[in-house]
Amino acid sequence: MMKWGALPIFNTISLREQVYEYLSQQIQTGGLRPGSFIQLDVLSKKLEISKTPLKEAILKLECEGFVEILPRRGIVVKKLTNQEIKDLYEILGSLESTVILSVFDQITAEHISKMKYLNEELVKALDKEEFDKYYQLNLDFHECFLELSPNMTLRKYIAPVKQRLYDFIRRQYLKEWELVNLEEHKKFIKAIQDGDREGAAKIIKEEHWGWTVHEAHAVQFYELNNPSEDTDFD
Fold it and tell me: The domain containing residue 166 runs over which residues?
């Protein structure tokens, strides 16, 4: 019997996906820290499964940038570098602004009302330091326009990029930085209300995901929440 700890077993998904979800959860909760090595032999015995689903899950995590396979050394959980964070910001800015340009005419008063509501809830969550709730609300805000896109390939690509940026222990947010982000949300909403398609896309690309705008805060945030720890996972 597999020893999955608190992770529930779902027979409707493949063993590879169960292992992937388990390892992803370990990264998110701090069981696997950046710099940690994943020992397949140890993990295979711990979970009482063969190495095949482990290797398949590891390959998926490698494709998403969470781990790196080092020749003759093993599998290490990657720490986000400043360059990678910058690259991911540029990718998200380009993708989300492209969506806005393509779905702008589909954004209704109902969508605008929902974004306003979510932004107000984000402020409340930030004040109460409910960071997991804040994280989900922020994803929901962006989904208000992303879900309008029929381009499922693009939408599927955005999700793992955001996971790479944010899926680690979320315990300490920089309030002054998040307030800047929430003001950008307001500017974005106003541009939509004004019927300014290009302006709304520009706010998302050059401000909300603009690296030069957010670099100082971003570097501080990731150093605070994404420290390295050179230990083995067993």
Answer: 82-225
Q: How far apart are CA 199 and CA 207, in angstroms?
A: 11
My answer on whether 109 and 64 are in the same domain is: no
pLDDT 10s digits, 28-86: 777 888 888 988 888 888 888 888 888 999 998 888 888 888 988 889 988 888 888 89
- 220 shares a domain with 110: yes
Closest CA to 230 of 36, 31, 77, 68: 36
**Total-model pTM:** 0.76
Q: Read out DSSP for the chain?
A: ----TTPPP-TTS-HHHHHHHHHHHHHHHTSS-TTPEE-HHHHHHHHT--HHHHHHHHHHHHHTTSEEEETTTEEEEPPPPHHHHHHHHHHHHHHHHHHHHHHGGG--HHHHHHHHHHHHHHHHHHHTT-HHHHHHHHHHHHHHHHTT---HHHHHHHHHHHHHHH-S------HHHHHHHHHHHHHHHHHHHTT-HHHHHHIIIIIIT-HHHHHHHHHHHHHHH------EE-
> What string of DSSP letters covers 128-156?
TT-HHHHHHHHHHHHHHHHTT---HHHHH
Distance of alpha carbon 66 from alpha carbon 181, whole angstroms? 25
Q: How many domains does the chain have?
A: 2
- What CATH number does residue 71 fall under? 1.10.10.10
Same domain, 98 and 178: yes
